[in-house]
């Protein structure tokens, strides 16, 4: 009986484990990798079964306010792994979640004939909210700006220089990175 238990335990251990490894993506690489950078507002989010009903993905639609790169039309629908369909839920660590009305800047990768996806999962989503007091729109997950205030720098956890920045400053930083990339 003990040999049977050991064999069963070894068999269970031999099952392939799946894990998500999320490597930090540098801002310049995020901009370069994206085929479209969209600023807009979430209008719809619905989860459906995929992969022959083995998992659930969420399809999110955004009404586009502005394109910082590329153009996918007035409304963009993109795919996010994970979601809830009926009594089933798929959790994908690192995947962003969206609510109707969220204002976001999205870094999307769109392969020909496929639904776009967010580059770097949550790393490719920047939330835009009104600043308390002034009401101006700010990006809450900002790029760390250089001392000159123009060029984005590498993100370092806990860096006190990381603070919300106005959406216009963020957009200018994205455009500056694109200009630098074209010059190379």
| Alpha-beta classification | alpha+beta
**Overall domain count:** 1
The major beta sheet can be summarized as: 8 strands, antiparallel
Beta-strand residue fraction:
35-45%
CATH class identity: Mainly Beta
Structural Rg:
20 Å
Total strand segments: 12
CATH architecture: Beta Barrel
Chain-wise SSE layout:
Layout lengths: L1 H12 L13 H7 L2 E15 L4 E15 L5 E7 L1 E3 L2 E3 L12 E7 L7 E2 L6 E6 L6 E3 L4 E2 L6 E2 L11 E2 H17 L1
Antiparallel strand pairs: 1-2, 1-6, 2-3, 4-5, 6-7, 6-8, 8-9, 9-12, 10-11
Task: Describe the model.
The structure is a single chain. Mean pLDDT is 82; it is low at 144-150. Strand 2 (55-69) and strand 3 form a beta hairpin. The longest helix is centred in the last third of the chain and has 17 residues, at 167-183. The relative contact order is 0.17. The chain is an alpha+beta fold and 184 residues long. The protein has a single domain (20-183), classed as OB fold (Dihydrolipoamide Acetyltransferase, E2P), CATH 2.40.50. It has helices spanning 2-13, 27-33, 167-183; strands at residues 36-50, 55-69, 75-81, 83-85, 88-90, 103-109, 117-118, 125-130, 137-139, 144-145, 152-153, 165-166.
């Amino acid at each position: 009986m003990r040999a049977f238990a050991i064999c069963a335990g070894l068999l269970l251990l031999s099952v392939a484990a799946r894990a998500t490894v999320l490597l930090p993506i540098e801002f310049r690489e995020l901009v370069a990798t994206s085929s479209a950078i969209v600023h807009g507002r979430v209008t719809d989010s619905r989860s459906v079964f995929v992969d022959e009903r083995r998992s659930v993905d969420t399809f999110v639609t955004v009404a586009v306010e502005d394109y910082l790169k590329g153009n996918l039309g007035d409304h963009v629908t993109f795919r996010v792994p994970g979601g809830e369909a009926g009594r089933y839920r798929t959790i994908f660590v690192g995947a962003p979640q969206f609510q109707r009305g969220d204002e976001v800047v999205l870094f999307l990768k769109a392969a020909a004939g496929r639904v776009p996806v967010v580059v770097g999962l949550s790393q490719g989503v920047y939330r835009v909210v009104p600043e308390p007091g002034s009401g101006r729109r700010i990006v809450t997950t900002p790029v760390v700006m250089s001392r000159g205030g123009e060029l984005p720098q590498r993100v370092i956890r806990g860096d006190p220089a990381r603070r919300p920045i106005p959406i216009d400053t963020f957009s200018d930083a994205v455009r500056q990175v694109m200009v630098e990339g074209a010059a190379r």
